[in-house]
Specification:
Length: 130
């Protein structure tokens, strides 16, 4: 296995730090959005699901960055990808049902789509290198 140049390692660490911050910020925005929704029985179900999946993205990414093996990292990134896809689904339901502030939820959906693309790309990169 070839070693990465030190510059690349620093860039990777900075990327990881920024993505951890970004996923935490996303989780906080999900929590804020959910707290603003009316608490109808159906909204409560969706709120529960989206808080679980939306906060799980960052938690699993943080775990991935502290993984003990390449296989562990790959598994955690896979979970991030799945949770981002699930969160995207719940956001689409909120938009299409008219439950939340459409502009705000669309911004969250855009960010979720970008996170999903990032984690899918990371996952593909890990798959190719193993």
């Amino acid at each position: 296995m070839t070693k990465l140049p030190k510059v690349e390692k620093i860039e990777n660490k900075e990327f990881a730090r920024r993505l951890e911050t970004r996923t935490k910020r996303f989780a906080l925005e999900i929590i804020k959005m959910v707290s603003s929704l009316h608490k109808t029985p159906e909204a409560k179900v969706i709120c529960y699901q989206i808080v679980k999946s939306g906060t799980s993205i960052g938690a699993n990414y943080r775990e991935a960055n502290r993984s003990v093996s390449r296989a562990d990292f790959k598994n955690k990134i896979s979970i991030c990808t799945k949770e981002a896809a699930e969160t995207q689904y719940w956001l689409e339901l909120i938009i299409e049902s008219g439950m939340g502030n459409e502009e705000n939820v669309r911004k969250l959906h855009k960010e979720c789509s970008e996170l999903l693309a990032l984690f899918s790309s990371i996952h593909q990169g890990v798959k190719k290198s193993t």
